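idk why but the lab printer keeps eating my pages so im just putting this in chat instead. protein + 1-deoxymannojirimycin:
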Amino acid sequence: MSAEIDRRTLLALSAALSACSTPRLEERDWRALAEDVKVQMAWAFAQYREKAWGKDEIKPVSGGYSSFPLRDHHVGLSLVEALDTLWVMGLDEEFNAGVAWVKAELDLDIDGEVSVFETNIRLVGGLLSAHHASGDAALLDKAKGLADRLMPAFNTPTGIPWGKVNLRTGVASEPRNSPAGAGTYMAEFGTLSRLTGDQRYVEAAKRAMIALYERRSGKGLLARQIDAPEGRWLSRTATVGSYGDSYYETLWDAWDLLGDAECRRMYNVCTAAILAHQREMKDGDLWFPDLDFETGAIISRRQDELASFYGGLLAQGGNAREGSAYTLAWAKVQDRFGILPEEYDYETRTPTQVSNSLRPELADSCFTTWLIDRDERWRAIAARHFEAMKRWNKAAFGYTDIADVTAEPKRQADHCPGYWWSEQMKYYWLIFADAPRFDYGRNYLSTEGNFLRGFRRG
Ligand code: DMJ
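predcted complex ->
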């Protein structure tokens, strides 16, 4: 980017931010909103207990359930993901019931393949955050036992893990992986190493991060698909959305949670490359198009909703102006559709995927940015996110994803993803409540919203 274009981008960014800096902020009773979040969480958990206890994910419209991350075997995914949210809200009876289930029922000696990434961020992370909440050693044991079952996936010539592993046999499969899939382990594995004294976990996680970083292009960008054992890119597309997203988050997290200065340096290098090559102003808003990772040419102006987490990450990493502008660009899309579509083309200003998988990312960015600057507009955007969810996603037996956000009225699907229990309900609660069990000054939440630091016990 030339100095002149850069100067113009900065001016446009400032204009975008000041245009949004004096929004109509409704006078809100945040405490009442927080209580409503807690009521919704308790209600949804009661539905899950009645209809799908110990199953992975409830179908909130029909009252059935489905399994994930295994194909035909349930591991109580939703309750594991819910644990620290229940605890931080003070829903202790529900939390204790969940912990009792994990201790009595959760057996991970299963002859089945799982995604190494999903199992780590959701289950290893969920068990570790429940351990952080309760101090219960049995939860740490479960987390360690599960991580041990994932470890064979890291046994590749490059250190970049396979995509899948069989929990019983340790046989790894799926050579195709991504920066996010291969590079989102430092928080959970670093915590495990710190708590157990066994450095193998953090070493495997970091080796993968470095192996990905070393394969960045001359422009400093990573592509979205890689052959793990060979270390050969299988795609040319650089993205901050799906497949890229939590790799960048984890570079920052390794510094934030573990004090790893090398990861912070890698974060800075990757972020500088993204900001230099990937920023685009359109109609006064900041976006990050997908690029060819070697030439920097724009491949697509379609943004997946998952990318809306990125504003919060930029703010955390010290790029407050760009972070705020990106979150505000997404907030405008939310204002247009009520609920963000799964994919949005900012050039044509149309959704290119009209579903929404009950996603937390915009609320995540609002919460993360609010923790830094305490600007009320983030609370206002999060409140609209919560209220739209209450209006459109609530079903007979819980909260469901949406098949079409553009339909009038919006059309519900029938699935409550596990992350719903771990992410947005927690972000809403913490941003609206003055939660006594949370340290607002010093905390850490993983990409899945799992607390690995910042709980106040007793
Ligand atoms: C979550 O599982 C995590 O936030 C992950 O990093 C990507 N997004 C999903 C929820 O949308």
